Amino acid sequence: MGRLYLTRHGETIWNKEERLQGRANSPLTARGIRQAEELANRLRCQPLDIIISSPSERTLQTAQIINGNHNLLIVQDEHFMEIDVADWEGKKKEELEPDRAFQFWKQPHLYKSELGEDFYDVRERVLPRIKSLLQEHPHEDILLVTHSVVLKTILNYFDDRPLERLWEGPFLHGTSLTVIDFEEDRHEIILYADTSHFSEPVMF
Fold first, then answer.
1. How confident is the model at residue 68 (pLDDT cuts 50, 70, 90)?
2. pLDDT single digits (tens) 5-28
3. pLDDT at 104
4. Pairing relationship of beta strands 141-146 and 186-194 according to DSSP bridges
5. Residue 70: domain span
6. Half-sphere exposure of 33 toward its Cβ, with a 13 Å CA cutoff?
7. CA distance 22 to 145
8. Among the listed residues 6, 1, 11, the one whose alpha carbon sits nearest the alpha carbon of residue 174
9. High-pLDDT (> 90) share of the chain, %
10. What share of the chain is helix, strand, coil (3-state, %, to 5)?
């Protein structure tokens, strides 16, 4: 049996300002660094075999902080980059086209993007890679540091939900921890978006 640890990068400046990030980067805040340190402390005794990260600076920095207790090679994998929101990068919700913004958060199966990706594109990019990853490391403990839409896509698959229910489930705070045990074609989500390692109350 293997175990998959899933987390999102720590809080960034744009997260704090409630701006969309997508492929653009925004540095971790002091709180985001502290969140990563707290998760690192939680995982310090876990026997991780491999750490995989989106190549985005915010995820790599989070992964590097966690890796301080493990000294593993961090594998960068572009399959796990955040959804490409194209011209929405850096914008707040109120600056977006209302109809498309409603689809993005309320009707993800209807959302389309001429310049970036839609949720079907993300699913086609992420799911084959996560499946192959589990096949390549069937008896190992894997940490994946990635982004909210990617995590929701993965969990939507493991929960066997249709795309229109993508946003269901707990909110994925930065450095919250989700854990999935897997063996051949079986899997079990044993922890979902847990924040018990946080020293501060979570903010919604």
1. very high
2. 999 999 999 999 999 999 999 999
3. 97
4. unpaired
5. 2-194
6. 6
7. 15
8. 11
9. 94
10. 40, 20, 40
CATH number, position 174: 3.40.50.1240
Beta bridge partners of 179: 5, 191
Length reported for the chain: 204
Looking at residue 185, its pLDDT comes to 81
- The rounded distance, in Å, linking the Cα atoms of 45 and 204 is 30
Residue 203 has pLDDT above 70, yes or no: no
- Residue 203 located in a structural domain: no
Kindly report, residue by residue over 27-57, the tens digit of the pLDDT.
Answer: 999 999 999 999 999 999 999 999 999 999 9
**Looking at the domain assignment, is residue 177 inside a domain?**
yes
d(CA 108, CA 25): 23
Domains in the chain, number: 1
Strand partners, 52: 75, 144
With contact defined as beta carbons under 8 Å apart, do 170 and 87 qualify? no
User: Cα(163)–Cα(120) distance, rounded to whole angstroms?
Assistant: 8
Domain assignment present for 90: yes
Question: Which whole number is the average pLDDT over 190-202?
Answer: 91
Nearest to 15 by CA among 25, 7, 5, 6: 25
Please indicate, yes or no, if residue 75 is contained in any of the structural domains.
yes
Give the start-end residues of each E strand in 61-140.
Answer: 74-76
